[in-house]
Amino acid sequence: MLKLFLPSLFDNQRGSRDGAFRSTVRVISLASLMCVSVAANGQSFEEALALHDAGNYEQAIAIFMARAEEGEASSMYNVAEMHRHGLGTDPDPETAVRWYMRAAEAGHEKAREHGLETIHDLVEQGSPFGRNALGNAYLFGDGAPRDPGKASEHFRLAASMGYVPAMMNLARMHDRGVGMPQDFSESFRWYCKAAAAGDQEALFNVGAAYYNGQGVERDLVSAYAVFNVLAANGDAEGKALRDRLLAGLSPNEVRTGQRMARKAFTEGVDVIWQQREVQDATY
């Protein structure tokens, strides 16, 4: 059975989601807090806020970060703001988006809006991360009207720039028929692209597709080769499936699969399916 997961938001990291942002960075005020808590390092939100207001940004973001990691929404939001505007750290809008969305999920009322602003800025700059993030917003109706068709358009644009999470999102959409007819062969094609770019989850799904004959002709030798590569990379489930397949293959098939796996390490994993295509064309 294919090892599939619902695509999580923004680079497959949970918590990663218009208008112009005001020139002054809006950091959460004391009045917005219902109570005062102290982070594990003993420094409070108020101390971080005072440091921020005094221009001691590096110290402030360190405290906000510690509190954000403990789940405080206001600190998550402030970490996002400071990454977005390069206060106490290098400007990093992608990290900002992830923190905005973690803050939104934790209940911060303005975080999603500012996260979407940042996403649109990234899209205008030609960022595949931003394009993929916007696709997720449309896919889940999160800050944008739910529109799987439009989501797939953004994923395709990001994938065309070599962005692997977008390739995975397209593979999953085709696999499940989300916003498009279910198409296992197209799903397999996108998993192959993502696997060739180094995604191990995609490679597992390529092996599972060969094992199940889903989207591609069933081919246990190719499945064995794929799971061999995964096992060598430390994937316990890949190793278990490789060992399970071993019992049903002939010695010649095992040698062929091992040869394909060795070649994959020197030439890239896509040599496995390219080699099978050549063999199929020969027959």
From the N-terminal CA to the C-terminal CA, the straight-line distance is: 29 Å
Number of helices: 15
Rg, rounded, reads 23 Å
Q: Give average pLDDT, whole number.
A: 85
Tell me the domain tally. Answer: 2
User: How big a fraction of the residues is strand?
Assistant: under 5%
Number of strands: 0
Oligomer: single chain
CATH architecture classification name of the largest domain = Alpha Horseshoe
- Topology as H/E string? HHHHHHHHHHHHHHH
What structural class do helix, strand and pairing data support?
Answer: mainly alpha
The major sheet is characterized as: none
Say what the CATH topology of the largest domain is: Serine Threonine Protein Phosphatase 5, Tetratricopeptide repeat
How would you describe the shape?
elongated
Uncertain regions spanning at least 5 consecutive residues: 1-40
What level of helicity do the residues show?
55-70%
Output the CATH class name of the largest domain. Answer: Mainly Alpha
Describe the structure.
This protein is mostly helical and 283 residues long. It folds into two domains: 1-151, Serine Threonine Protein Phosphatase 5, Tetratricopeptide repeat (Alpha Horseshoe); 183-283, no CATH class. The chain has helices at 9-12, 45-53, 57-69, 73-85, 93-105, 111-124, 128-140, 148-160, 164-176, 184-196, 200-212, 220-232, 236-246, 251-267, 270-282. Helix 7 runs antiparallel to helix 8 (148-160). The longest helix has 17 residues, at 251-267. The two termini are 29 Å apart.
